[in-house]
């Protein structure tokens, strides 16, 4: 009601600022006025009558929708603001749609915990190794006769019950703790973690990973102004950083960057805020949706029906036909 009263009090020919109106090709999405009646007060003012200086900035919004693969008919898409790293202020470039099966699933805390335990365990190697009685030096002769001394029977001073003797059933390293979680369980953990970050408003989408300066204080002040917290993880589609971003992140130990192929549950939960580029969002949705819906039958048939193979496996009769 407040917005309606404000809009009713304004005149038809009044001009609205771009900060309060979201402009599209047809007009403002809030007040319905055409785009020629919405101006940007931050743009340079005309020097003479009839002559205007055209700003270099692109018209907003840059993007408002995306084509989602494998659309879900019963779940509406999630939406996120498209932001930029060019200024400290949170400049909105538009709204983008996110796939509900990637950023809007019910979080499985048990699967996330199993993934965290796996990531912290599978690369560990125990190098501890103890010597048995056979590996200890000495102890080849019987310490005293079997009978006649009144003492207990012993055959070697390197027995495990003796001091400085060999150890029975001790660690025999190196021993690896490597194991693998099921593939779909790892996919579900990634989807659950991304959904948690989105639900807690700790996920932000930027147009590109580029800053106007290589000063690390610029990124720190940007994170403070936008309330991104103490630790931020930047994810891009490529593993090559620009000069400004690489120099700035090098001086900030609690800010990290990684490519899409290195994205994991432990790193996302370790950092308070997750910042994805638009290309990274496209790549993440493409790979996760592909693994969720593929049956891998096409790839198997390509291998079995390769021209280099002298045998052909018939899937209908389940027999092997030899061309030779």
From TrEMBL:
Which intervals of the chain are annotated as region Disordered?
Answer: 134-165
This protein's record includes keyword Calcium: no
The record lists the lineage as: Eukaryota, Metazoa, Spiralia, Lophotrochozoa, Mollusca
Q: Where is the major localization of this protein? A: mitochondrion
Arranged from A to Z, the UniProt key words for this protein are: Mitochondrion, Ribonucleoprotein, Ribosomal protein
Location(s) in or outside the cell: Mitochondrion
Q: Does the keyword Cell membrane apply?
A: no
Give the UniProt entry's GO cellular component terms. Answer: mitochondrial inner membrane; ribonucleoprotein complex; ribosome
Name the SUPFAM superfamilies for this protein: Ribosomal protein L4
Supply the Gene3D superfamilies for this chain. 3.40.1370.10
**Name of the featured protein:** Large ribosomal subunit protein uL4m
Query: So what family is this one in?
Result: Belongs to the universal ribosomal protein uL4 family.
């Amino acid at each position: 009601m407040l917005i309606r009263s404000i809009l009713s009090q304004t005149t038809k020919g009044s001009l609205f600022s771009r900060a309060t109106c979201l402009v599209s090709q047809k007009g403002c999405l809030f007040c319905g006025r055409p785009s020629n009646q919405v101006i940007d007060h931050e743009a340079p003012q005309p020097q003479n009558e009839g002559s205007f200086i055209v700003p270099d900035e692109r018209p907003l919004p840059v993007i408002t929708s995306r084509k989602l693969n494998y659309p879900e008919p019963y779940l509406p898409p999630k939406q996120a603001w498209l932001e930029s790293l060019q200024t400290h202020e949170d400049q909105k470039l538009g709204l983008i749609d996110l796939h509900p099966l990637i950023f809007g699933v019910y979080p499985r805390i048990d699967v996330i915990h199993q993934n965290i335990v796996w990531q912290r365990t599978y690369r560990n190697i125990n190098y501890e190794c103890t010597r048995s009685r056979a590996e200890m030096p000495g102890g080849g002769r019987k310490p005293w006769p079997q009978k006649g001394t009144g003492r207990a029977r012993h055959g070697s001073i390197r027995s495990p019950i003796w001091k400085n003797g060999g150890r029975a059933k001790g660690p025999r390293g190196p021993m690896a703790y490597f194991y693998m979680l099921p593939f779909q369980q790892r996919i579900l953990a990634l989807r659950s973690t991304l959904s948690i970050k989105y639900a807690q408003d700790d996920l932000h989408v930027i147009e590109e990973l580029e800053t106007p300066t290589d000063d690390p204080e610029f990124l720190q002040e940007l994170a403070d102004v936008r309330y991104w917290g103490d630790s931020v993880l930047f994810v891009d589609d490529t593993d090559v950083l620009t000069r400004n971003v690489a120099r700035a992140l090098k001086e900030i130990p609690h800010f990290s960057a990684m490519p899409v192929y290195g994205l994991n549950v432990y790193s996302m939960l370790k950092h308070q805020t997750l910042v994805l580029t638009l290309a990274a969002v496209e790549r993440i949705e493409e790979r996760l949706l592909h693994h969720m819906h593929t049956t891998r039958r096409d790839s198997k048939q390509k291998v079995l029906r390769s021209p280099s193979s002298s045998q052909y496996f018939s899937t209908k009769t389940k027999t092997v036909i030899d061309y030779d």
